[in-house]
Amino acid sequence: MRIGKLPGAQDVATSFHECLISQGFTLLDITSDHALRAGSLPGPYRDPFDRMMIIQDELFLAGGHNTGFIF
After folding, report:
1. How many CB atoms lie within 10 A of CB 55?
2. What separation, in Å, do the N-terminal and C-terminal C-alpha atoms of the chain show?
3. Cβ–Cβ under 8 Å, residues 57 and 69
4. Rounded alpha-carbon distances, angstroms, from residue 6 to 2, 13, 15, 62
5. DSSP of 7-69
């Protein structure tokens, strides 16, 4: 991050976790199990970020949560 290139970026970077929580986000850790499952995900998903989101959503839903994501 280059300080001065984006006004307020340093404040967000130093309080990123608190910003997400205050906006109602639920933070999900990425584990080695997620990585293995994302790597073996069938289908047309080529973007690693998309694959990780799909796997985390599946695991989150398995815990009884409803995210509303549609892939």
Report:
1. 22
2. 32
3. yes
4. 8, 11, 15, 39
5. TTHHHHHHTHHHHHHHTTPPP----HHHHHHHHT--SS---HHHHHHHHHHHHHHHTT-----
Task: For residues 66 and 60, give the distance between their C-alpha atoms in angstroms, rounded to a whole number.
Answer: 8
Kindly report, residue by residue over 8-64, the tens digit of the pLDDT: 777 878 898 998 899 998 888 898 998 999 999 888 888 999 999 888 888 877 765
So where are the chain's domains? 1-27, 31-71
